[in-house]
From TrEMBL, chain A:
Name of this protein: Branched-chain amino acid ABC transporter permease
Keyword Glycoprotein: no
Keywords, comma-separated and alphabetical: Amino-acid transport, Cell membrane, Membrane, Transmembrane, Transmembrane helix, Transport
Compartments, record wording: Cell membrane
Membrane topology per record: Multi-pass membrane protein
This protein's record includes keyword Cell division: no
Main location as per UniProt: membrane
CDD domains for this protein: TM_PBP1_LivH_like
TrEMBL record, chain B:
SUPFAM superfamilies registered for this protein in UniProt: P-loop containing nucleoside triphosphate hydrolases (SSF52540)
Name of this protein: ATP-binding cassette domain-containing protein
Family of this protein: Belongs to the ABC transporter superfamily.
Highest rank taxon of the organism: Bacteria
Assigned keywords, A-Z: Amino-acid transport, ATP-binding, Nucleotide-binding, Transport
Single GO MF annotation: ATP binding
One Pfam family it belongs to: ABC_tran
Domain ABC transporter: 2-225
Residue ranges the record marks as coiled coil: none
Organism (species): Falsiroseomonas frigidaquae
Record bears the keyword Nucleus: no
Length: 311, 225
């Protein structure tokens, strides 16, 4: 065993760092998906498209900023700006024009509608950005690398993925927890999540909360996409793989769990990157093995609570 | 204060309320008595605007409120304590009580004044204020739900089966609280649903009986249950 570690130590360290970086991105998407489902009770398959469009838009804004002669550091705020723009435009558009019409429909129909939206956005994205890989890595090269100590080894890793991405995820996690518990708007969102009808009777306009929450969730998905742009080249299909991973995180963590989603994203992110490194043929199934194993033991999810509302 | 006029409600295509008319006068206390499934909860939800009417009207202070969205009921001074209390479990008792007043955007001083009045009426809530609502017992929860409805219910408070599941001692305490409420807020109209008419005789001045979605007895005619 000790022998295995001396041989594979650096590889394992690398896998852990990869896992943490991808967990940060998965978390950003999963937490938005979770929030939107909690409030609207609609499972939004097109959440992955918002990730993809956020990613492509970030590349476009980044290229534009560079061609306009802005300095390299401007590529970082450019990512943020692109994500905000995508969320603020597409979020209200989708909620107002589409979702608003299906809140009272059967879940199966809702799923079909958001799946259709996913297909439409996927094609729209191919129409706008084409099918050739798009790559915009200025922020990664800008931030350089850090030496991460791992046991007796030192692993050089890019600062963007090992520091910036986890930092953004942690800020999102803490910020969201404070927003939901300490502000009135946050408590209103929680109240609608817990009991829409009781919240309405307390004077809360649930429709307004739906619009706000969906837009916010769309911004989080787009931000996840925008942050992923510098780390990989963008190809059609990133939306699909992202939504599937986020579903796995949300189902494993349990609905309505924000801190739980963060821990589960870490589990799944690291599990997957360890598989990629040591058992590449298992890469695709590892998230689902984790999910199935958890759900067999705890059907309500790792951190989910069984609802008890009776007297 | 609040009135249903010939209200017809269907749920999933089946008639649940048929031509229901009911008047809740200012400061009055009305009981709506009926078996499970008779339509009591639906009648209250119709008053709150929580479901669509197929026919009839809802009047608040004499004005047609049928098309007024449900979330405006609180602003019109109508408080509602649904069946099964339906508190917000992750909030403390105080947060549950404050939420409707904060949503209405009431001034801090006014919120404080209302909270004090509720703590005076229901002193047990003051001692529970910092507890999480999810950890309350059934009886405690009912008291909090009453307090929460009172926070905005300056004109009317609708209580759906508040006595259901309460042990006799707690039911008596709850009834005493309602009597005190009538004494200290004489303008607030109370509508209480119940399946057992005996429980409410000392409280109410008008009783309606609902059977299979229809009012079968109303007014002083049935006042003694």
């Amino acid at each position: 065993m000790g022998n295995w570690f001396t041989e594979n130590g650096p590889l394992l360290g690398l896998a852990l760092l990869d896992g943490i970086a991808s967990a940060a991105l998965i978390f950003m998407v999963a937490v938005g998906l979770n929030l939107v489902f909690g409030v609207l009770r609609v499972l939004n398959v097109a959440h992955g498209s918002l990730f993809a469009i956020g990613a492509y838009a970030a590349a476009s804004v980044g290229f534009f900023a560079a061609s306009a002669g802005l300095p390299a550091w401007a590529s970082l705020p450019a990512l943020l700006f692109a994500a905000m723009l995508v969320g603020l435009v597409l979020g209200p558009l989708i909620e107002r024009l589409l979702l608003r019409r299906i809140y009272d429909e059967e879940p199966v129909l809702q799923l079909l509608v958001t799946f259709a939206l996913f297909m439409i956005l996927e094609d729209a994205q191919k129409l706008v950005w084409g099918v050739q890989p798009v790559s915009f890595s200025t922020p990664v090269s800008l931030m350089g690398t850090v030496d991460v100590p791992f046991g007796t080894d030192v692993i050089p890793y890019n600062t963007y993925q090992v520091i910036l991405l986890p930092a953004v995820a942690v800020v999102t996690l803490v910020g969201l927890a404070i927003f939901l518990r300490r502000t009135l708007t946050g408590r209103v969102i929680l109240a609608v999540t817990m009991d829409r009808e009781a919240a309405t009777a307390m004077g809360i306009d649930a429709r307004k909360v739906f619009l706000l929450t969906f837009t916010f969730g769309a911004m989080l998905a787009a931000l996840g996409g925008a942050l992923s742009t510098p780390t990989s080249s963008l190809v059609p299909g990133i939306g699909a793989s992202t939504i599937v991973l986020s579903f796995a995180v949300v189902a494993t963590a349990g609905l309505g769990q924000i801190e739980g989603a963060a821990l589960t994203a870490l589990m799944i992110g690291i599990g997957r990157s360890i598989a990629v490194t040591f058992y590449p043929e298992l890469e695709v199934v590892v998230p689902y093995i984790i999910m199935v194993a958890v759900l067999l033991v705890r059907p309500q999810g790792l951190f989910g609570v069984v609802e008890t509302r009776r007297v | 204060m609040l009135e249903l006029q010939s209200v017809v409600v269907d749920i999933a295509g089946a008639p649940v309320l048929r031509d229901v008319s009911l008047t809740l006068p200012r400061g009055g206390c009305v009981a709506l008595i009926g078996r499970n499934g008779a339509g009591k909860t639906t009648a209250l939800r119709a008053m709150m605007g929580l479901l669509p009417l197929r026919g009839g009207r809802v009047l608040i202070e004499g004005k047609d409120a049928t098309a007024v969205p449900a979330h405006h009921r609180a602003r019109l001074g109508v408080g509602y304590a649904p069946e099964e209390r339906r508190l917000f479990g992750v909030f403390t008792v105080r947060q549950n009580l404050l939420l409707p007043a904060e949503v209405l955007g009431l001034a801090k001083s006014e919120i404080g004044r209302r909270l004090d009045a509720i703590f005076t009426l229901l002193p047990e809530l003051a001692t529970l204020a910092d507890r999480r609502a999810a950890g309350l017992s059934g009886g405690q929860g009912k008291m909090v739900a009453l307090g929460r409805a009172l926070m905005v219910g300056t004109r009317a408070v609708l209580l759906d089966e508040p006595f259901q599941g309460l042990a006799p001692v707690l039911a008596q305490r709850y009834a005493a609280a309602l009597r005190e409420l009538q004494a200290s807020f004489p303008d607030v109209a109370l509508l209480v649903t119940e399946s057992n008419p005996q429980l409410l005789t000392s409280l109410v001045d008008t009783t309606y009986v609902i059977e299979r979605g229809e009012i079968t007895q109303d007014g002083a005619f049935a006042a003694q249950g």
